[in-house]
Amino acid sequence: MKTSMRKIATGLATVAALMAGQTATADNNIEGKRVIFVPITMGISLTEGWARRMREHAQVHGYTIDVRDAAFNTSIMSELLAKAIADKPDMLVVHNPTVQLLARQIRQAEQQGIPVLQINLQSNQSSTAFVGANWERIGREIAEDIVKECGEGSGKSGKVAVIPGQLTAADSVIMNEAAFAVFEAGGIEVVSNQASDWEPEKARQITSTVLQQNPDLCAIFGHWDVHTMGAGNAVNDAGKADDVLVYATGGGDAVTCKAIEDGILDRVWSYDADGQGRDAGTLIDLVLQGARNESGMMIAESPLKVIKGGADYDAGLCWKM
């Protein structure tokens, strides 16, 4: 996982270079081909934004996108992916809830000649393509900012609570590894590292308890803006909005900016889900035409936008559905 993320090269320029060097002959006629997208859940801006942009590409080129919603149920997700493989589409797009859950099925699909695009959360199993955030960079940059605000010489406690969605999700595994190394060097004490299962209410409860146990808490690092809003609400309810900085990552839609405006979140490292959807659509177009990187995955890294409150706030950094 760590090695593959280090190989990420920024943007679709990498894909263009791979296309220029590919040995296979591309088939530009992709009309009528079938793509199946299996997300962790629909009904959230992240996956809805991706699906919207992928469908735009499909409409232009005449292929289909079939979305099969797992609704946050990992057992159902495995079943849906198994059924999708049995249906023998021309390509699969998967959104991994953990690094291991879908690894065997991704390998099975690739072995059967069905190319797989992994989106934003990467499995331990490599595939034809990946589009998503550089989680090592995000974890490191947020940790460095927390050290600056809360670490040695800041006059603050140096205490931080980390709230992953799932401890075994790719983003959490990679961000925690990067962030904890920075924390250790910068005098930061991680007083809590509890997963919220992506639920805002659970994040609120975790935060409320942590604040009771650590009234001098300096920062919260949430691994997804949606559930971290629950943590931010707990900070406000405790009257600690001026004392505790709330950091998050996320897709950067208008709801994120509203949370910044309302003081629920302080700083968000956005991987721009709208842009990711466009990049995913482009990768699908290329793979359906025969594009492959014979030495590894084709990877499009998502550019980052840092959305901050206060004088540096810029609503233009967020996107709308």
- The SS-based structural class is alpha/beta
Q: Under the CATH scheme, which class of the largest domain? A: Alpha Beta
Number of domains: 2
Q: In the CATH scheme, what's the topology name of the largest domain? A: Rossmann fold
How much of the sequence is in beta strands?
15-25%
Percent helix, as a range, is 40-55%
Oligomer: single chain
Which runs of at least 5 residues are low in confidence (pLDDT < 50)? Answer: 1-26
* Major β-sheet annotation: 6 strands, parallel
Q: Compute the average pLDDT.
A: 92
SSE series: HHEHEHEHEEHEHEHEHEHEHEE
Strand order of the largest sheet: 2-1-3-4-5-11
For the secondary structure, the number of strands is: 12
Global shape: elongated
End-to-end separation:
32 Å
- Per CATH, the architecture of the largest domain is 3-Layer(aba) Sandwich
In short:
This protein has 321 residues and is of the alpha/beta class. The chain contains eleven helices and twelve strands. Helix 3 (45-61) packs parallel to helix 11 (273-288) and helix 8 packs across helix 9.
Describe this structure in words.
The protein has about 325 residues and is an alpha/beta fold. The protein folds into two domains: about 1-135 and about 270-300, 3-Layer(aba) Sandwich (Rossmann fold), CATH 3.40.50; about 135-270, Rossmann fold (3-Layer(aba) Sandwich). It has eleven helices and twelve strands. The protein has helices at about 1-5, 15-20, 45-60, 75-85, 105-110, 135-150, 170-185, 200-215, 225-235, 255-260, 275-290, and strands at about 35-40, 65, 90-95, 115-120, 130, 160-165, 190-195, 220, 245-250, 265-270, 300, 305-310. The strands form two sheets. It has a six-stranded parallel sheet with strand order 2-1-3-4-5-11, with helices on both faces. The protein has a six-stranded mixed sheet with strand order 7-6-8-9-10-12, sandwiched between helices. It is elongated. The two termini are about 30 Å apart. Residues about 1-25 have low confidence and may be disordered.
